[in-house]
């Protein structure tokens, strides 16, 4: 009986020793968080973003410069017969004034707006995702209230991965981070009602991304 007990204790001791060794090998400190998970893409970030964004039912418009942006925006407004365009961001508002595009920036008009134009922090190419924070001039409401949300972005805001966008936001705001960080991947959708897919259930029905090329050629 003693021999049996001794043998069992020896086996258990070996098992414990093996488990401790394995646990040490799997400690978080030994995990490489810096090496990329995916292969480096061969195509430009703007093409990668456009492909992913449109897969998620987003509408993508590439603009060669700010003048081209105004031409495309006017065409969208005319074709869709949009009214009640709202802009809070002063830079975007300045562009629209230059192009004689009618809009409102009055708070009292916000609840009846149909089309909202905002900027963004970053565009995540691999996910086709738009990163927006509460620190931006557009705030929180203009992202969700309008039927149509138009994001005005520049090619210099493109990053490859989500961690690059979050790192950029952290570096930008330091110890005063935004209270809200939103990742927009196409218009909101739900199938909660009778299992029927509804787009724009709790946000804009359509999302447009107008990407302005600001790279030096």
Tell me about this structure.
With 217 residues, this protein is an alpha/beta fold. The protein folds into 2 domains: 1-31; 45-212, Rossmann fold, CATH 3.40.50. 35% of the residues lie in helices and 20% in strands. A hairpin with a 7-residue loop joins strand 9 and strand 10. The termini are far apart. Mean pLDDT is 84; it is low at 190-200.
- Report the C-alpha radius of gyration, rounded: 25 Å
Report the sheet-strand fraction.
15-25%
User: Which CATH top level class of the largest domain fits?
Assistant: Alpha Beta
Question: What series of H and E elements makes up the topology?
Answer: HHEHEHEEEHEEHEEEE
Secondary structure tally, helices:
6
- Through-space gap between termini: 85 Å
CATH superfamily of the largest domain: NagB/RpiA/CoA transferase-like
What is the CATH T-level topology of the largest domain? Rossmann fold
Overall pLDDT: 84
Uncertain segments are 190-200
Strand order of the largest sheet: 1-11-6-3-2
Q: How many separate domains make up the residues?
A: 2
Structural class by helix and strand composition = alpha/beta
Q: Please name the CATH architecture of the largest domain.
A: 3-Layer(aba) Sandwich
Percentage of residues in helical conformation: 25-40%
Using DSSP, what is the number of strands?
11
> How would you sum up the major sheet?
5 strands, parallel
